Amino acid sequence: MQKNVTIADIARETGVSTATVSYILNGKKSISSKTKEKVFAAIEKLDYVPSINARSLSTRDSFHIGVFIPQTEPGGSLMFENMFYGEILSAIEYEARTQGYHIFISGRGVDESCFYLARRRNLDGIIAIGVYQDEGFLSIEDSGVPLVLVDSYCNESPHNAVRIDDHYGGYLAARFLLDRGHRNIAFFSGRQRDNGVMQKRFEGYRQALAEQGAPFRQEFVFSQNVDFDDGVMLARKLIGTHIPVSAVSAAADVLAIGAAKAFSDAGLRIPQDISIIGFDDLRITQYITPGLTTVRQEIALKGKKAVEMLIENIRQPASQKRTEILPLTVVERESVRTLEGSNQEGL
Amino acid sequence: MQKNVTIADIARETGVSTATVSYILNGKKSISSKTKEKVFAAIEKLDYVPSINARSLSTRDSFHIGVFIPQTEPGGSLMFENMFYGEILSAIEYEARTQGYHIFISGRGVDESCFYLARRRNLDGIIAIGVYQDEGFLSIEDSGVPLVLVDSYCNESPHNAVRIDDHYGGYLAARFLLDRGHRNIAFFSGRQRDNGVMQKRFEGYRQALAEQGAPFRQEFVFSQNVDFDDGVMLARKLIGTHIPVSAVSAAADVLAIGAAKAFSDAGLRIPQDISIIGFDDLRITQYITPGLTTVRQEIALKGKKAVEMLIENIRQPASQKRTEILPLTVVERESVRTLEGSNQEGL
């Protein structure tokens, strides 16, 4: 290794400032192609290799952040079937890259605390998506590794967090259906865990029903994992029960999409025979037929905020922890119809 | 830092072998929970932090591999809107994790060669998806960094590569339509670049038409980027031209999905008024209505093979470079109809 070649050597060789060389290597500022060409030629000639690993051992900063993504099951693959994760990861990577950081992705080992991983990998900080309080994941905070939680409700100690108001989201969805005359509304969700987003959305659904005097029945509630196949399965279960519902509130778009497919395969038309509202506003929901009415969360903004907050935390480790809550709205497309009069029809 | 605490200290403290401690830290072998508990307790007690960065400076191996994903445009976000990338990344991460490797993801800077990035990040190897020969990306091979190309046609020098036979895929799709009586077939694709997958698929389409004596017209061919919106746009363009086609071969499922939406919005029924065949067999294609008939490629297998090949290359740097070509089949769902008799209808 040419340990003695430094940025200053490159600058001298090319006649530009060390700052310019640094900008080019970090990609942080727009520099003319001509200058870039000269600098890269000098780098080649002098065989300069900027080693972040070597540097980070002395300065601590690795410009490397870890993103922890939930798995389908312990030891399973990452949950990319739910396009929410692709969309948020895309936003995280883009914002991080813009700010000069690179991304490390991983599932969460069942035994391995992220604390160890962060130190082994010399990560500057961590963004963890969908962590549950009971997972033991949060021992990480003791390590002092900067951390931003996305979509987690962890009350025991203060964390930097970005999330939505999931209770309100569940309420919004059910309220949208109630306002259009639906009274018998099924609820499809992922597994409900204490203080998890699915539980919060479910509580919002219950609150809306109660407020409007609509019946709540335990048989209206169907929970499984969050993927297309489970949406199909829950819809088939609902059809099998012969419980008369006129609408489904699905706590994730992928469940709604799977359910819509199963209803359609069973000869039920959406929204004429059954209405569906989803949750997330994944990009795909506007390209299916009929377009899915859904609770929109700002997925890209969530990713961007998480990175901003993390970098702030990296730069100012002592700053106050805070939670940012992003807005929700209903996007109306074609999957929900208004029931006429007071005669609700059902399946 | 407790520099003097080693794996041997942990082993002594817990009464297990150093190999067992190492297995637990690498997650490479199944060890009983009881042993794990003891070992993690000792790690905690002795404040042992296995630093991969520190280790990798001496042994070279970082157990860290980089995955380079195409961007929507130079400097833009990663192409996760095309779910192909989420699906293949999921498979890559899973296989890598199983083999004790972690994943670094990045777009490709326009100026920054991956060669620099790999050395800066001390990556053991790189998987690069969708690289074009004219991009200059392949200067990386000179660096000796183990590399596997996915979906690239780079003939100048030998590389490890995993791909499909894109020409054959384009042929299969068009042939499927021709065999069902379609003669006037539009082709929707991403931008066609020299030796790129889209160009190969296009050539396959042309070959099938020529073989069957079906007309080829330049006005049948529509190219744009590969996302939903471009599928919508291409379909609207096609409708606007009033060229009588009875079917569309879309060289990517996301284009097919966008096109199906636009046709449907324009009052055209699929497949009664127009047939569509896609390419990829993304998970979503079986959950839309009508289900999309498409050329299936084994996306998860592609990711797995890429990791296997890369790790082989990391372990045996001198071994012969090879290309692995994965199989293609047509999955028939409901988006293509058979034309009766010889009277072809069109838009």
Helicity of chain A, as a percent range? 25-40%
Oligomeric state, counting identical vs distinct chains:
homodimer
Largest interface comes to: A-B, 59 and 59 residues
Overall tally of structural domains of chain A:
3
Outline the biggest β-sheet of chain A: 6 strands, parallel
Query: Please, what is the CATH homologous superfamily of the largest domain in chain A?
Result: Response regulator
CATH architectural type of the largest domain in chain A: 3-Layer(aba) Sandwich
Can you offer a commentary on this structure?
2 copies of one chain form a homodimer. The longest helix of chain A has 17 residues, at 299-315. In chain A, the strands form 2 sheets. Chain A has a 6-stranded parallel beta sheet. The first copy, chain A, has 11 helices and 12 strands. The first copy, chain A, has helices at residues 7-14, 18-26, 33-46, 52-59, 83-98, 114-120, 166-179, 197-211, 228-241, 253-265, 299-315; strands spanning 64-68, 102-106, 125-129, 147-150, 160-164, 185-190, 221-224, 247-250, 275-280, 293-297, 323-326, 328-331. The N and C termini of chain A lie far apart (72 Å). In chain A, α10 (253-265) links the parallel β8 (247-250) and β9 (275-280). Chain A is of the alpha/beta class and 347 residues long. Mean pLDDT of chain A is 86; it is low at 51-59. Chain A has 3 domains: 7-50, lambda repressor-like DNA-binding domains (434 Repressor (Amino-terminal Domain), Orthogonal Bundle); 64-164 and 298-327, Rossmann fold (3-Layer(aba) Sandwich); 166-297, Response regulator (Rossmann fold), CATH 3.40.50.2300. Helices cover 39% and strands 16% of the residues of chain A. Chains A and B meet through α3, α4, α5, β2 and α6 of A and α3, α4, α5, β2 and α6 of B. β2 of chain A pairs antiparallel with β2 of chain B, so a sheet runs across the interface.
